[in-house]
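User: Second chain of the day. Same drill as before.
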Amino acid sequence: MPTEDLDALPDTGAWSVEPFLASLTAAAPNTVAAYRRDLAGFVTWAERAELAGPAAITRRTLRRYLAHLATRGYAKRSIARKASALRRWCGWLRRTGVITEDPSVGLSAPKGDGRLPRVLRDDELTTLLDRPPARAGDDPVLLERDQAIVELLYGSGLRVGELCSLRPEDLDLDDGIVRVWGKGSKQRRVPLGDPSRDAVRTWMAHGRAALATDESPVDAVFLNRRGRRLTPRDVRRILDRRAPTPVHPHALRHTFATHLLDGGADLRVVQELLGHSDLATTQLYTHVSKERLRRVVDSTHPRA
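Assistant: Same format as last time:
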């Protein structure tokens, strides 16, 4: 699988990328970071092609770059994301007068491969939540933290970035509510189930203080072994330790949504719980749910 060309832009001044990123005041930090990586890759490629700056970009340039990504083995979904970043950047360049015409107008990119999100099997979920493998030297404090993390990811459908950015004031454990700051700084309130509430209360009452240091951020609910704010990479490692097979944090969010729909939840309610701005995004889970139910019928019904 190809890797990003650079993590930082080679020349922010000539390409006006940093001012563009600074203009994304409503975007989540992860979104800004993704734009930075995507545009860094384009700028690196463009400079190798001896382009001096944004004024030299044409639609043909952008199409050649997307074709270059395809030859490098990038997935269609990744290329589509990078094309979206280029369109937004070029639109900003045009609006701010850096360029006179937007070269991204009409730029098309391959559509994503349409893969349905993975939903955890019941046995996988049980192992992850209730029966993680015991290992010699397991720290009880870390086990408390890890239990609270997996309960929140599955029980409330949080994005991993949302979980890592939680603050103590976002938790209302008495009423069983967590306040979440999602994409575009949109706020939503999500119920906490009893297992989630109990696990988070145990962690906040005992475990967090044991991991905290003088340099720990006071506004972070979850901390890593060094007492710093937990990162998405930390969460991925936690899930890999607890699960029999590798599990991406987003799989728990997929499973949360699919199980709600399997249980008869209204699509609009699921949309609100997930924090989707577009109902079409949530509708993907109706297909996941139908496919999952079909597999159950096919494997269990005698006349299926």
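Residues 3-8 have pLDDT under 50 and may be disordered.

User: Great, on to the next one.
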